[in-house]
Amino acid sequence: MPPTLASVAALPQLGLRSLTGPLPDALVMWVAVSELEDPTPFLEGGELVLTTGMRLSGANAAGYVSRLVGRGVAGLGFAVGVIHDDVPPELITAARDQGLVLLEVPRPTPFIAIGKAVSRMLAAEMYEDVTRAFQAQRELTRAALTGPGALVARLARLLGGWALLLDASGAVQHAEPAAARGRAEAIAPELARLRRGRPADGGGAASVALAVPDDHIVVQRIGLGGRPRGFLAVGTRAPLPHVAHTIVGAAVALLTLQSETPRTGRDLRASLAALLLGRPGDAPALPRGRVRVLACAGGPAVLDVLESDPAGARCLTLPLDGHAAVIVPDEVIGAVEPLLAALGPVGVSDPAANDLGTALRQAEEALAAAVRSHQDAVHYSALPGQGVLRLLEPGLAHAFADTLLAPLREEDLVETVRAYVAANGQGEAAARALGVHRHTLRSRMRKAAEVLGRDPDDPAVRAELWIALSITSNPDDRIGHRGDSHTRPPGIA
């Protein structure tokens, strides 16, 4: 979302001053410098227009303001001390009367400084949108491992609205929240448009948008063929911004994958696991039961070694940047680990049920430790601090973690705080790990401190957060595991 006029005027280095009262939430799409008496033929609307008033006087001020208002500019910045010592009073009066925001630009502030500031804010917003879309896609992919209902629930939360998954006949399969089922009636007349022909051939629409009281609704068809496999509908109080459309598109792609593939549910989960581990596309069947992720420095030779061994044939191997990730059934880890360690350092995760993203992170941390210490293999559980967690009583530990992290989960701040704690409170490092700007990281951490009611920069607080995050990153196995098969969670398949 572009910056608001108020946020631009609030930049202290620019020294801008409003001459027309409180600033509205008007969006600044660009900055345009013009000394023309009528610059509107060269404007699109939404610009902050800057001028020294070279061709302005008391006599033509009202007409000048009227033209800018008619074009829909965001505001007018008038530089003093260049042509005019002060902003002409007639211009101020006309701006107030016609509802145009008028900013005084002090003599030391060059117009290019304002342009650069807005450009940086626009770039930061675009980067934030891309990052948000990427993180949302990963969250949706994780949810898809559980099933379409979990995906729909996650999508509704990401959008701050509601979501419906309907089958080809229009019957509701999943609704989030449950009350959203009532929206199906308003959507029903639009489904016929989405059923006609193939959108790629011009025979039908891929999506429709409609506005009803209190709702802006987007409905998209699911499926690749001529007949849709189902429909996804989402609704929000305000029109969806561009980044939200990207997130909805990701959800439709995942639902289409689920509906179109003829493979078994186990094979589908393998494909989704490949997405989580950074390797989109087809993948072998995911091993059943509890697994570990191994991060291996052996390169392409990993595939050859595993294919030549009976135990290795049960593994899923995914090449990554500079190493390979191997998903190994827990019961054959003793045979596979030495094979891979002979090729180069190996990092081994804790046992996992379906949280492959966490297991991959553990394996890569262990691999980094193996490289640093020149060891053949390092288990994540052997890293400093991991043994402490096993001393905690499981029930009390999970209760402590859930209570501490609950406010962060409600605000989607868990991963932000995880990165901050992992970086030992170093904002720059945490921002790089999350792929966000440092100002975004700082804003999120201020919010985290607010909802936690404690300061994450306090080492004692960070220690508590580290314990809670470590417990919940793999709650089935990190603490209290006794090896009893009756207490183990169900397998992935």
The whole-angstrom Rg is 28 Å
Q: Give helix % range.
A: 40-55%
The secondary-structure class comes to: alpha/beta
- How many strands in all? 15
What is the mean predicted local confidence, pLDDT? 79
Strand order of the largest sheet: 1-5-4-3-2
Strand portion, in percent? 15-25%
Indicate the multimeric state. single chain
Low-confidence runs of at least 5 consecutive residues: 198-203, 261-269, 278-285, 474-493
**How many helical stretches?**
17
End-to-end Cα distance: 41 Å
Largest sheet: 5 strands, mixed
Question: What is the general shape?
Answer: globular
Comma- or semicolon-separated keywords:
single chain, 493 residues, alpha/beta, five-stranded mixed sheet, five-stranded antiparallel sheet, globular, disordered C terminus
What does this structure look like?
The chain is of the alpha/beta class and 493 residues long. It has 17 helices and 15 strands. The strands form three sheets. Strands 1-5-4-3-2 form a five-stranded mixed β-sheet. A five-stranded antiparallel β-sheet has the order 7-6-10-9-8, sandwiched between helices.
